[in-house]
């Protein structure tokens, strides 16, 4: 066990069932694979949150899809740390805020952008979703600097 509350590392294959369970608990589908996934782990190396970054093959833009913190770890800075670390690695992050997550992203300094800056094949498709009105999707981004 370490003295830190949590650390961040690359996801491993044996993390996938936990990641899928966390996604499912948030009403999402399982993640396709662990490519681009970083996890926050506690001192016992148990996953407490994760972020998945999908890169646009054309220009390398990084899209967050998704970032999830286990409910018992919310309020400890896990989501913020995952987002900050990803931003430092990529220089810019884009995402679609859904449900009640808008205040979280706004508190981190993300700004609203147009849908034209979102690569829909790298985020969940909002146009055809029957829960779109309830979800209230908002395209956002943040750049370093």
Brief account:
The chain is an alpha+beta fold and 145 residues long.
Broad structural category: alpha+beta
Mean pLDDT value: 90
Alpha plus pi helix count: 4
Morphology: globular
Q: How do the helices and strands follow one another from N- to C-terminus?
A: EHEEEHEHEHE
Sheet with most strands: strand arrangement: 1-2-3-4-5-7-6
Strand portion: 25-35%
Q: Give the number of DSSP strands.
A: 7
Can you offer a commentary on this structure?
It is a single chain. The protein has 145 residues and is α+β, with helices and mostly antiparallel strands. The chain has four helices and seven strands. It has helices at 16-25, 78-90, 102-107, 132-135; strands at 7-10, 37-41, 47-55, 62-69, 92-97, 111-112, 138-143. The protein has a seven-stranded mixed sheet. A hairpin with a 6-residue loop joins strand 3 and strand 4. The radius of gyration is 15 Å and the shape is globular. The relative contact order is 0.15.
Key descriptive features of the protein:
145 residues, alpha+beta, globular
Secondary structure layout:
Elements: E1 7-10, H1 16-25, E2 37-41, E3 47-55, E4 62-69, H2 78-90, E5 92-97, H3 102-107, E6 111-112, H4 132-135, E7 138-143
Parallel strand pairs: 4-5
Antiparallel strand pairs: 1-2, 2-3, 3-4, 5-7, 6-7
